[in-house]
Amino acid sequence: MFLSKDDLKLGFGIDLDIAAHYVDRAVPEGNLYWKGRHLYVNTMPGFIFMPVFTDLLRRCGVRKELLLSAPFIELAEAVMHSAAEQEVEGRSMISHYEECLELARRVSVNPFFLDALDAHFHGRPVPDGLKLGTPFRSLNRADAYLCVLCVLPFDAGQAARYLEAWYAMITVYLITDDLEDIRQDLREQEDNVAIEAGLNEEGAKVIEGMVAKAMEVMDHVNPVLANRFEHKLHYTDIRGIIRSFAQGS
Questions:
Q1: Cβ contacts of residue 197 below 8 Å, gap of 6+?
Q2: Is the Cβ–Cβ distance between 57 and 162 less than 8 Å?
Q3: CA 33, CA 23: separation in Å to the nearest integer?
Q4: Angstrom distance (rounded) from CA 135 to CA 174
Q5: Mean confidence (pLDDT) of the chain
Q6: What is the pLDDT of residues 154-184, one digit of tens each?
Q7: For the chain, is the Cβ count within 10 Å smaller at the N or the C terminus?
Q8: Angle, CA 222 vertex, CA 150 and CA 213 arms, to 5°
């Protein structure tokens, strides 16, 4: 489904210049993530999150010209190509992470954050003050996209704001996606936050708590997007979905 720059502005709160940049951008040639697609952005979360996160960074203080620069956009596209390769070819997540780190290293202006990501992806401690990752592997599976931040100059304090916005956004997107895919992920033994948290009342409580925290952050950073998430979550019975699997249905 086609989205106009006005759709992105009114429906997601995205700055009009950022919205136009993504809507008007040509599908990158040879990029596996966009294979068979004619539009750069559509309504699917796997595509819409890119302009959404770009605008979240703007709202957190990043200059718009940096967010619309070739290094930022092209690195994002390369990361998504690697993600598609990992999905299609069954490569390990660590090889995907390492490829994205190498892509970032070529254009990075932020060795501090690049080193932090390297530590995060390889299970080493990250610098104090940086909250990289969640307790659930399934909610960390998109963290390679954070490599795009390496083309931006910022300090640890700014990084904390960017990461808070990222995890608020991606937590809602991935939890709602995982709740729809529990049955398939159980069958195929794929990562799924509901399975990791436990298909029981305690697991449901943990997930509800994560969603509530994410919504609190998003209410502050982008109220328009928060309203959209709230509408989606209103029709998502987290406890009921999980209870149905706990009862073996």
A1: 136, 203, 204, 206, 207
A2: yes
A3: 16
A4: 14
A5: 95
A6: 999 999 999 999 999 999 999 999 999 999 9
A7: C
A8: 85
Phi, psi angles (nearest 5°) of residue 10: -75, -35
The model's pTM is 0.95
Q: Who contacts 229 (Cβ-Cβ below 8 Å, separation ≥6)?
A: 172, 214, 215, 218
- CA–CA separation, 229 and 226 (whole Å): 5
- Rounded to whole angstroms, the Cα distance separating 104 from 87 reads 20
If you count them, how many residues does the chain have? 249
DSSP for residue 29:
T
**By the 8 A CB rule, do 241 and 179 touch?**
yes
DSSP 41-104: --SSHHHHHHHHHHHHHHHTT--HHHHTSHHHHHHHHHHHHHHHHHHHH---HHHHHHHHHHHH
- Inter-residue contact 166 to 53 (CB < 8 Å): yes
Which two three-digit tokens encode residue 45? 């979360």
Indicate if the pLDDT at residue 28 is higher than 90: yes
